[in-house]
User: Which sequence fits this backbone?
């Protein structure tokens, strides 16, 4: 193996940097994030890259091409994590990008264009509940209002940036122009079971799913659990339960459409009182926006029928809306050709999870390589990718980088 042992060694070193002993936890603008970035910056320098931080904390390593100062092909992912995370989600893409730069030097290859490896800041959005902070700034899409978001201690993003040594008034300077970026490639664990089911180590991503997140509020009437007859109740929880099942039914039989109710609040929330009010979340995703929006319309209609029949009131508040991002056909073909050149079968599949590439797509063509993960598990200490699969992913990425540099398909 050329790539995998060194990549795994570095992933293990990063996993030791955490805010919580016995877990892997690294949030945006924390000492743990700073330590992780310092370690990765050292590896970038060892690989021959110049290294800098931009105004929001993105870590950028750059290898000049034959014409210094020219546009770059960008390899990216993130170093921040969810709480009690695995060691592959995010860091695998960054570390593999550095490994590919090292391989270029080893093989004496000088690309005609620059190559950048970017460790984006705050992809997960756990600390401030705002995802893709770094990649949105990179793409010139960061809303200044995001700097007013607060963490659990009431610290704003702007204040945390100052404490970290960044200037929140300079975030616009992190934006890159489209003529600076030739394309964007991201390698990531699949976070799903399709590659494992197919018996394949890698796959090529067709699109990053769009997402609609909403909060539903069902209002009925609280009442005594022992005295209100069943046919006279306006039970908001029973209505919410029926709505959740309707969401599940709508999403079950349509490929790549997923709907999740992950949070529910019941009021008054005591065992001997009929629920008078229930709020629940809906996260609806699909790689095709028309598919997602059609499903959302059907879900709204089904919930309206349920509440009318049960004599409840319904409120629906949109919380987040992100369009699907199709992967670039040219870059996707490079990845397909690289997979075939490695003697592997090509499996094309959408990503149901969000990635930094969603933001970067506003200024550059994007494509992704997926690496098989055991059981499809991610955001979990059980997250695992084998050395065999890491090696396959790194080889595919390296071939794609070379294919792009040569301006031809492999």
Assistant:
């Amino acid at each position: 193996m050329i790539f995998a042992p060194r990549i795994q060694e570095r992933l293990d070193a990063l996993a030791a940097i955490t805010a919580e002993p016995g877990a892997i936890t690294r949030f945006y603008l924390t000492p743990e994030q700073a330590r992780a970035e310092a370690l990765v910056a050292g590896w970038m320098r060892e690989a021959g890259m110049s290294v800098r931080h931009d105004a929001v904390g993105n870590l950028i390593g750059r290898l000049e091409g034959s014409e210094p100062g020219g546009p770059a092909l960008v390899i990216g992912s993130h170093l921040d994590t969810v709480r009690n995370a695995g060691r592959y989600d995010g860091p695998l893409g960054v570390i593999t990008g550095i490994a590919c730069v090292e391989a270029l030097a080893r093989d004496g290859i000088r690309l005609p264009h620059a190559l950048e490896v970017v460790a984006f800041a705050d992809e997960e959005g756990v600390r401030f509940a705002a995802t893709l902070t770094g990649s949105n700034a990179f793409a010139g899409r960061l809303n200044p209002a995001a700097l007013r978001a607060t963490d659990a201690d009431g610290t704003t993003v702007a204040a945390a940036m100052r404490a970290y040594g960044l200037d929140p008034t300079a975030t616009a300077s992190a934006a890159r122009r489209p003529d600076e970026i030739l394309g964007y490639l991201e390698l990531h664990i699949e976070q799903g079971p399709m590659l494992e089911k197919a018996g394949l180590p890698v796959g090529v991503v067709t699109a990053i799913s769009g997402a609609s997140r909403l909060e539903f509020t069902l209002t009925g009437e609280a009442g005594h659990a022992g005295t209100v007859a069943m046919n006279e109740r306006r039970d908001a929880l029973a209505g919410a339960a029926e709505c959740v099942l309707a969401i599940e039914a709508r999403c079950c039989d349509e490929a790549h459409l997923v709907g999740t109710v992950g949070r529910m609040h019941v009021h008054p929330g005591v065992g001997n009182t009929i629920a008078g009010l229930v709020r629940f979340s809906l996260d609806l995703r699909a790689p095709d926006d028309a598919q997602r929006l059609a499903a959302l319309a059907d879900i709204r209609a089904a919930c309206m029928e349920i509440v009318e029949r049960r004599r409840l009131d319904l409120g629906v508040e949109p919380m987040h809306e992100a369009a699907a991002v199709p992967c670039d056909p040219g870059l996707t073909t490079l990845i397909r050709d690289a997979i075939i050149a490695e003697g592997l079968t090509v499996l094309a599949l959408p990503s149901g999870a969000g990635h930094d590439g969603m933001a970067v797509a506003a200024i550059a063509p994007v494509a992704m390589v997926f690496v098989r993960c055991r059981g499809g598990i991610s955001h979990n200490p059980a997250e695992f990718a084998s050395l065999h699969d890491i090696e396959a992913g790194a080889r595919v990425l390296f071939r794609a980088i070379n294919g792009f540099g040569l301006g031809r398909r492999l």
Notes: Residues 289-309 form the longest helix (21 residues). The mean pLDDT is 96. The radius of gyration is 23 Å.
